[in-house]
Description:
Blueprint: E1 2-5, E2 14-21, E3 36-42, H1 47-60, E4 65-69, E5 74-78, H2 89-95, H3 126-138, H4 142-148, H5 179-190, H6 193-205, H7 218-221, H8 228-237
Antiparallel strand pairs: 1-2, 2-3, 4-5
Amino acid sequence: xxxxxxxxxxxxxxxxxxxxxLAGIPKAKKQTLSSIKFVSASAEVPILExxxxxxxxxxxxxxxxxxxxxxxxxxxxxxPFLSLCVCDFNMMAEAxxxxxxxxxxxxxxxxxxxxxxxxxxxERDPVATKRILEHLDxxxxxxxxxxxxxxxxxxxxxxxxxxxxxxxxxxLHWLYLGIGKHLLKACIQELxxxxxxxxxMLIESCDQSAFGTKVSRDTIIYIDSRQGKDIKTYVRTHSxxxxxxxxxNDNFV
Length: 253
């Protein structure tokens, strides 16, 4: 599932699209046209409404579909099921009744919040989520919505999979400022003062004459106020000190 722009101009108008792909096919064939089956697209129909039609078809076929295997030259019964849903983080929020990146509990997969965004929070449980959504249907409390980052609306995906788990993504969290800054900040905060000073000395001793933008000790000392361009420059010019003097623990994302 995805939403792309229906306009050629920069004005955003979402074009909702749904496609199907067989599970278990070789990785080299996953992105070929023959492996991707177009299902629907609309700039007017909500994405979950289009998904509902697909899910209804799958559920109505749980008894199996009698067909013919041309390779084996025999009749076979195909039992369809949905193993996972592929989408980006924006669509993942939609698929799991999540409020999105601006809410305090910003991650649709776990209970991380903006005060501890670099750490893995308690995993979201589908049973608990559905119970909270039922409460919100009765009493749409703003406090309850903010505490869990959820909003109630009809979502057929809950009937066939666990949207918190069955939507694979490249990273755990939805990091609003970019994973680079969060990772660097977490590393620096774990360094004792002496190690931070050593890192600053390493930066200042580095030959940066070939770079248009220079990295200074301010990047380390004032990491909270650094912008994306500062972090990008640090990564490009000081990649070997990306995780300096720091051993990641099991909870680190």
